[in-house]
Amino acid sequence: MQTIKKIIPFLILFALLGILGKELFYAKPNEIPSALLGEDLPNFQLPNLFSSKKVVAQKDLVGRVTLLNIWATWCYACSIEHPLLLKISEKYHVPIYGIDYKDDPKDAIAWLVKNGNPYVMVGKDRLGNVAIDLGVYGTPETFVISPQGKIVYRHIGAIDQKAWDEILYPLIKKYGNIA
Amino acid sequence: MIVARIKSALWIVTAQAPFRKRRLVWIGKGANLLLLWILLIAIFCLNMAHAENLHPFTAPDDASRFQQLTKEIRCVVCQNQNIADSNAPLANDLREKVYQMVLEKKSNKEIKEYLVKRYGEFILLQPRLNKLTFFLWVFPFLALAGILPFLLRLK
User: Fold this and answer.
1) Residues in chain B closer than 8 A to A134 (CB atoms)
2) How many angstroms separate the CA atoms of B91 and B82, rounded?
3) Which of A29, A176, B101, B117 is the most exposed place for a label (fewest CB within 10 A)?
């Protein structure tokens, strides 16, 4: 009995240290959970990057599983992600819609011409209003949108092959028949 | 420009009164310094006025609401600052959004709900009491109740 009593404070201490250690080394403070999961994609309408007369709207994304990718030419991680986006659109035939976030349209067009364009449509969000409405706080961010127009998943940061194979692609297959 | 002009004016004054030159030169230097201060303060005030004008309100009530709200909302990219203090681009955008919503006469509750919906509970610097944060709020009292018997027994 006496020895157990002596051990208890240490047990509490180690439990505390364990919890703190876990938070310290494994917590991801940048991955803020979105409460928009399972909700309808917010209504938006943006001018098309390639022709200002056309628009890119939330209704364009409905009807099949789509990806909504928020990117910018000034964003370094976006350039790392870019080849995979090209692969996703060419090899996996998943339609990707882009939102060009706080960018110079001229730079964006030049960038897409140079590096290839994986997007079905790109809307330009020069002021970042739509991004706020989507709860975006950095680029790149990618949303998986179900055929019903609901937000199914949100990926923060650049997509890599592992995230694509293990999370995004299985989800997309689950929500729609992609050839 | 202005400083230079006043300097030359002072120089004329000092030149015309050679017998009191030394003293006047000294006064001139003091006046220069004073002028510099006045200029600095004027620039500062102008800046302040400018900052006020970025978010003009017609109703003083809205203005104080805006001040209060921006102090309670976390800047999500610089996580331990509120958006009133932060100059991060996203904080600016969020400030703008809050400003728009205040102008639209949305209530504080509606504005906070809008943000929490998009950025999570985390965006509020002071977490609200709900299912998720219940433990957070109650824990200190539980802990106190837990150690109370030990404290009493010590005596």
Assistant:
1) 118
2) 8
3) A29
